[in-house]
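In the current project phase, our protein records have gained a structure token line. A sample record follows, to show the layout:
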Amino acid sequence: MHDGKRDDAVIDDGLAELLSGINSQIALFDILQRESSDVFWLMDMQLKTIYMSPSVVKNLGYTVEEYTSLSLEERLPPESFRLMQKILMNDLLPVIKGEKPDTGNPLVYEMLHKHKNGHMVWGEISINLIRGKSGGFIAILGITRNIDERKRAQIALEESRKKYLTLVENSPDWVWEVDEDLKLTYINSRPAEVFGIPVEFVLGKTPFEFSDPSTVENEMTRFNNKLHSRLPFAGYLQVLRDKNGRKVYLEVSGNPVFDSEGIFRGYQGVGRDITERQMAARKIERFERSRHFMLSVEDYAFMVLDENLEIIEWSIGASGIFGYDRSDAMSDKIFPLLWEPERRKAISATFKRNVKLAGVRYFEAENLRKDGRLVRCKWAIDNWFESDGSFAGAYAAVSIVSGVTDLKLKADGLNALLLQEGIQAFFTNPKMRLTYASASISETFGKSPEQMKGTDAASLFDKSSFEDITNQGVLFAKKNRKWSDEVTLVSESKSYFSRKLVLSGHFDKNNKLIGYIFLFTPAKR
């Protein structure tokens, strides 16, 4: 009996546990009905709501009584109501009539629902048909899940994606993706415009198939180095040819793409068309080369003046012609010092004069060197002006018309003096090229003084005489001493004649050798 009583106690305990479990499940179901984001509902076959879970309050703001009193059309916005009618007519009614098989799978769709406060809430509806004991359909069971946050996030994401695609497709940049074999899997429409071919033709090809043949090998080598590193890159330069054969310069940046397992799947990135920037850089480079060339040429002067006629560029040739070095020109106001005092005001007006369609203007003038001597020069000037007409500066190129002279001694006067003294003469620079020839000696050689300028002095003597000049005479001349000897000259017609030569050095104010002076008189017999 004791054992029997113990068994009854066990049975009572088990029943209590079972009842407790049932009660717990009922309590849990009650919580789900009230707190769940899902709304459970039943409709009869006339679409009358016969059950609605209390969670409708949390999701749509209505009490159960309020919501069940509303018709289907009152619960849904017009577009959702039309969708529901379509589902009932096309999906449920044919199954109920036996025109379509009942698969047992729920119908799932998304639509908007009206909230009591007036705003719309997205819900995901799952519908099943319920059969009775006789096998016929007796009710519609539905579960409406609140997916408002998720759906609105999806819509926002889709709108953002569409905006992004619109931006990408209309971007002036080249947006691209390649797979692990470097074949293009996506590219926006910009390259198609440049190449003049459809995007479909570009896909499946490598970017290097469109590179300029002269650069493709080097580009592939550099990119392969980046590819093996699997690292982001930027500033990679690619040169292509457009549909007209012109070069297109792309500045490319990219990031590696990995799948969820960390396996490399390719690159995606952007190519920026920097053709205009590249061309501008080339122009600047060419300008700098031109500037360097002009500033380095010794035979003519090149200078740039600002609006105050102060020098902002000064070439090597300018130093040679005017005697001022670059530091003088750039630090001191030397431009007025190149002109005689009485001419400075007129010269300033000449440079600043705004002459319509004048272009480059030319004139000759006698200019003062740093050592005080005069040199006759030919000037070419091109001035420019601001939009308001004010003077902004000028370019000037200067060449020597005749060499340095003292007391404004003209060439014809020098020729007359030499002829009166029975002297023939020519001057040379330090490299023994003629810078001046007297009329009398030019007649001897059958050339005008201008034609003789630049002639190599060696071509005017026989070999032996010129060796004496270079071995002996030049040494004397460099030491500011005269050297004299009888020499043999050779005319253009290869006739030989003897002259007594007096050779001396030609020095500037600072005692720097600037050439040689050759004076000839008839040789004694």
User: Anything to note?
Assistant: The CA atoms of residues 35 and 58 lie 7 Å apart.
